[in-house]
Structure formats: C-alpha cells, structure tokens
Specification:
This protein has 501 residues and is of the alpha/beta class. It is built from 16 helices and 20 strands.
C-alpha cells in the first residue's frame, strides 16, 4: 500500500467521522472558502454547533490559526460559545491536549492554533487582538454594521490557509443591515446559508414538540415562521397579514423572464424597442403579456428616502402582479423603460407618482405615450375641474390606496409573487411613534407604493380582454408624426381611429 493510499484512507475516515457528527445541510460548508459565510437560521437549526465544529476542525488540521470567537457582549460568551467548545473538546477527548485560559479567554492547540474569545463591548481589548486568520460572530444580529467593518479589517494575519468570517444569527428583523448587506444584493465573496430545526437531526423530540406547538396555535403562527423556520421578521405592527406574505415567500416563485428593453432614441421617438433577456436585468416578468389583455402600471419615482424607481404591472382582469421594474437610474432612462414596458403590455394604462417630480410624465408625453392616468382636481377659486397626468400621493389619497391594497391581499394572498415586493410588504408597519403606515426604519416601500398606485388607478382601464391591439404606432413615418403634432385633439382622435382600423 502506498503513502497516497494511506492519506486517502485517512481523509475518507475523517470525512465519514465528520458526516456522522454533522447535519447533512451543513456538511458542504466545511469545505466552503468564501470570505463571508453567512448562516441565517431559526432556533434549534444547529448552525452554532456547525460553526464551532468547523473552527475546531480547522484548528486541529491547520497549524498557526488565530481565530476570534465573539458576541456583542463579552459576558454572554461564557454561557454560549466557550461552554460549547469545552463540551466538544471533552467529547473528542482533547481536554488534556488543549490549554484553556479563562483569565484571558483563549484555547491553545499543540500545533500553534488558537481560539480567542472577546466581546465587541470591550473595544480596547479588541484593538489588542491582531493577526486574525478567522472570525466567528455568534448572534450576529446583535452587532452593528460598523462593528462588522471593524472586524473585517482585522482579518489580515499571515497564513497559508484561507481567511473566513462566519456570521450566525436568527433573522428577527427584515430591516437589519445583514439582510441589506448579504441578501438583498448578492456578494460574490459571500456564501449565504439558510436552515431551521427541520435540518437538525440531533434535536430531541421534546425540543421539536416545543417548537412545533407554535404552529398549532394560530396566534403564534408568525412566531413559528420567524423564530422556528428562520424567516425574516419585522419590528412593529405589520399593516399586511404577515403569515400570508410569509407563505407566499415560502413558495419561492421565480420570474418567467428577467431582462430589460433595448431601443433606439432618435430624439423624437423610441424606435426598434425590443425585450432583451438578461439575468442581470432589472425587470422581472412573472406573466408575459397576453394579446388583448388589459394592463395597468403603477410607478413610484425615487424621491425622499428612496433610491429606486419602481414600476408594478398588473393584469387588470385579475389584479395580479405581472411584472416588476426596479432600478437605481435617472428619470429619463426610467421613463423610456416605462414607455417600452407599457407598449409591450398592450399600451397599458400608466400612473406615475408626481410628488417629487413630473419629469417622467413629461418624458412619456414627449414620447407620445397614448395612455396615462388622469387625476381630477377642483380649483378652489373658479371651481373648475382641472385634469392632470399622474398620481398624487397625499394625506387624502395615500390612506385610500393603502387600504385598497390591504383588501386586495386579504382577498387574494397570491396576487403578489415578487420576492422584493413581498419583503417590503412584510416590513410595511404602523410604527409606535406614528400611526401612519410606512416602511420600518431601514426598510424601503418603493415596491409597496407602486403596487398601491397600480391598484388605485385600475378604474381607468378596462377589465376585459379587448380585440387585437392596434398597429405599432412607434413605426409611424416622420410625416405622420408631423401631421400629429399639428393636429387638433379632434383631428388626432380621427387619426387614431384610422390607425386602429
């Protein structure tokens, strides 16, 4: 038998031993080398045992490590992480081989590797810890993003081995920086893992029964979803029915298509507008347009407290979500994508919020978009009715469209399928300070407001399938456009009748 065979047998034996002591859901993570290993899970999922086991295995197999094990508060380490490592060393028969120091909490291995324990509340002590080659943050939801940054820059020790920060936490709030940092926008340097008690085969029957009792009690269903299954929770009183939204999230509905629109802009009109499939695109399509089907689009512009332009497309026959456009962009580029999206969905009725800017509306007018939502206001002096394009969200209209959306989702919980929209609905709350429904601190409501606007303008669109759509007016000749520009409203109506046959 060769030396290679001996090594192979040893590795096989190690792996089989590890597999016998581990949950299948975590087994591949022992070999993960991403800089950030993010473990999101419910109570009893086994994520903390896995994190401790991985560090212990690396300390035994890879000499020279300086791993930091930390929590926000130092005193909580003794009853959690320190005790966990003590138990694991005893189970492996290693207590005599590993030197434990309780005064300056650390565990030293014969090969020079060390486990260091510190709380982030002791800043001076943390500053004295240098040359770290790995970090495990237990209950990472307790720390701030600045805490994380300070830890990240300390991971710079010289070593032949890969460096990794493990973050384990229960997702008690969907507004946490961890969600924004690692879940909302995927990071190539991070691996995200989700687990719950169902992934832990070592959990005893009594513990399982305690957790599942929450599911049997209807009033505790939300608690079961968040604390047991490890779903994102919220702080505050949710406006929309959280369990129904969570069930939709659990369905993990994927878009039928993802992409954006390409077009040619000659300064007068958009030409050759066409859909382009692109996995990195900013438009998610859940129900492609059907010939003759009526659609509405509610658009929320990037105003105060917002950084995204959003458009929600609804099938007006059912009120169900058909597509979502969500992008950080400029107003003119948003308006052009909106023009293309509306055209694709059978010249859908478009209602753009006007609170912060009317530029998208003016751009749609310049591009001769034929169907914009029209609001009516009465002049206090002349009492004349004034008609204007766009939706105005104010103290009168906002409660109405929010209440309407609450009713829609109560009557048809499956009306929304987009994950980002569902997460925003989950974090749309009545705060303790104000009774006004709004996004919880740190969260966004762009998708919620665009969706509410879309439902609020449905009355100006047909609810029935129409005959085939009119010819593509974007292909009009320059002469015909010039005739249109010179025409009176009555003449334009006649021109449209001729175009529509």
């Amino acid at each position: 038998m060769t030396e290679t065979d001996d090594v192979s047998r040893a590795l096989t034996g190690w792996y089989l031993s590890l597999a016998a002591r581990s949950n299948a859901a975590f087994l591949p993570l022992y070999f993960d080398t991403h800089r950030y290993l993010v473990l999101k899970g419910g109570g009893g999922s086994g994520k903390s045992v896995f994190a401790a086991t991985k560090l212990l295995e690396r300390c035994l197999a890879e000499p020279g490590h300086r791993f930091l094990v930390c929590r926000k508060v130092a005193r909580t380490l003794k009853e959690s992480c320190w005790r966990l490592f003590e138990r694991m060393l005893s189970e492996r028969g290693l207590r005599g081989a590993v030197k434990l120091s309780r005064s300056e909490p650390s565990m030293s291995f014969p090969n020079g590797s060390m486990l260091l324990f510190a709380g982030l509340d002791d800043v001076e002590k943390l500053k004295s810890i240098a040359d770290l080659t790995g970090i495990w943050v237990e209950e990472a939801s307790e720390i701030t993003e600045d805490d994380f940054r300070q830890l990240d820059i300390r991971l710079r020790g010289e070593t032949a081995w890969y460096k990794q920060i493990i973050l384990s936490f229960n997702p008690v709030s969907a507004n946490h920086w961890l969600k924004r940092r690692f879940f909302d926008e995927p990071d190539a340097r991070a691996r995200v893992h989700e687990s719950c008690y169902l992934d832990n085969r070592f959990l005893d029957a009594e513990a399982v029964r305690t957790l599942e009792d929450f599911a049997k009690n209807g009033e505790d269903d939300y608690h079961y979803q968040v604390y047991c299954l490890g779903h994102w929770g919220v702080t505050g009183n949710t406006v929309f029915h959280a369990p129904s939204i969570q069930r939709q999230l659990d369905r993990r509905i994927e878009p039928a298509r993802i992409g954006y629109f390409r077009y040619t802009d000659d300064g007068r009109a958009l030409r050759e507008a066409a859909w382009t499939d692109d996995p990195a695109g900013f438009i998610s399509v859940y129900a492609p347009p059907e010939p003759g089907a009526p659609y509405v689009i509610g658009a929320d512009t990037a105003g105060e407290g917002s950084d995204c332009f959003v458009a929600q497309v609804l099938d007006n026959r059912t009120g169900r979500q058909a597509a979502v456009l969500r992008r950080r962009t400029d107003e003119d580029l948003f308006a052009r994508q909106l023009w293309c999206l509306g055209r694709w969905y059978n010249w859908a009725l478009i209602g753009v919020e006007t609170n912060f800017s009317t530029y998208p509306i003016l751009e749609l007018e310049r591009l001769r978009y034929p169907r914009q939502y029209v609001r009516e206001t009465v002049d206090d002096y002349t009492h004349a009715v004034r008609r204007s394009y766009g939706f105005r969200t104010d103290s009168r209209t906002r409660p109405v469209i929010i209440a309407g959306l609450v009713q829609v989702l109560r009557d048809d919980p499956e009306a929304v399928c987009d994950r980002t929209t569902l997460l925003e609905l989950l974090s749309f709350v009545r705060t303790e300070r104000w009774d006004r429904p709004e996004a919880a601190p740190g969260a966004h409501d762009d998708c919620v407001m665009a969706l509410a606007i879309a439902h609020g303008i449905r009355g100006q669109q047909s609810y029935f399938t129409a005959p085939p759509a009119p010819p593509d007016r974007s292909e009009w000749t320059r002469d015909r456009w010039e005739d249109w520009e010179r025409a009176t409203p009555e003449e334009r109506e006649e021109m449209m009748k001729r175009v529509n046959g």
